[in-house]
Specification:
Blueprint: E1 7-16, E2 19-23, E3 34-37, E4 50-57, E5 63-66, E6 77-85, E7 89-93, E8 100-103, E9 116-123, E10 129-132, E11 150-159, E12 163-168, E13 172-177, E14 190-198, E15 204-207, H1 212-229, E16 233-234, H2 242-249, H3 253-265, E17 269-271, E18 276-278
Parallel strand pairs: 13-15
Antiparallel strand pairs: 1-2, 1-4, 2-3, 4-5, 6-7, 6-9, 7-8, 9-10, 11-12, 11-14, 12-13, 14-15, 16-18, 17-18
Helix pairs in contact: 1-3
Length: 281
């Protein structure tokens, strides 16, 4: 069976002026065959030769073969470039002559020409190849990561209830839980994360923060830099509303309290009735 959207080895069964026809085997040539255009045909190819090709549809929706390797195949996830946005969706560069469509209904946010977007390749109801930004079901769960490993990933979905869904290495399924979202992240953001756990199903739990004892120094430095820009002053205390702390410091309230406590212990800051002040040494 000739498989749409996949790479496969097919046999040359017929030569014509405009290319060669390929089939699963010479015996199955009458059942199903596909054209490999002349400009793609290797020199001196013979009947019975096997070629590695990718199968897609041409502008007339006919199945066609190519010896070029696309940037993405059926069921895979990859970062694709938006060439232009049209009336029915965005046209994405996937390495072949005909661009692949990202329909509006498959966009988790509006995309713009010139940006790179994480997508998965699928076959739509009309038996055409298209891509989607809803990549959750296409991500793998067989990573070799262990707890506390560092990794990079792309945020592909935001949930008010769960947090930020991340494609780790643009391949593996991960989640930054809502409680770990100490900074404002958006769909499409490239993030550095720490693996905090591996679930039974292989999906990864993630954090934007380092391990607690390391994070204290990082957070402390961030607070001191903030104070340098604000005349050695923070206009609220560690008892402030969590949303104020998150908005100003990009930290959770508990994270902020721990870091302030660490700085107080080191004699670097002091808390007043309604502010935090830096102590000059």
């Amino acid at each position: 069976m000739i498989k749409l959207g996949e790479k496969q080895k097919l046999t040359v069964v017929k030569k014509v002026d405009f290319g060669v026809y390929l089939a699963e085997s010479e015996e199955k040539a009458e059942e199903e065959k596909v054209l490999l255009p002349k400009k793609q045909v290797p020199a001196d190819v013979t009947i019975g030769a096997e070629l590695d090709v990718f199968i897609y549809r041409d502008s007339d929706d006919r199945m066609i073969a190519t010896t070029k390797s696309p940037k993405i195949t059926l069921g895979q996830v990859a970062m694709l470039h938006v060439k232009e946005v049209g009336k029915i969706g965005a046209f994405m560069d996937w390495g072949l002559e005909k661009d692949v469509l990202l329909p509006f209904r498959e966009q988790t946010r509006k995309v713009k020409s010139g940006e790179d977007v994480l997508c998965a390749l699928y076959i739509d109801k009309s038996d055409r190849l298209a891509v989607t930004m809803n990549v959750y079901e296409y991500l793998r769960t067989d990573s070799s990561y262990v707890k506390d490993d560092k990794a990079r990933g792309t945020v592909y979905e935001m949930s008010k209830n769960f947090g930020a869904f991340v494609a780790v290495d643009d391949i593996y399924s991960g989640l930054i839980p809502k409680k770990e979202l100490t900074s404002n992240v958006q769909i499409g953001d490239d993030v550095t994360v720490r693996i905090t756990g591996i679930r039974e199903d292989g999906k990864l739990d993630l954090s934007l923060r380092d391990k607690a004892y390391l994070q204290l120094d990082t957070d402390g430095e961030a607070i001191l830099k903030y104070m340098e820009k604000h005349n050695g002053h923070i206009g609220f205390t560690d008892k402030a509303d969590p949303e104020i702390i998150k908005s100003e410091m990009q930290m959770s309230k508990n994270q902020f309290k721990r870091a302030i406590g660490h700085l107080m212990k080191n004699g670097q800051v002091k808390i007043t009735a309604d502010s935090i002040e830096r102590i000059d040494r």
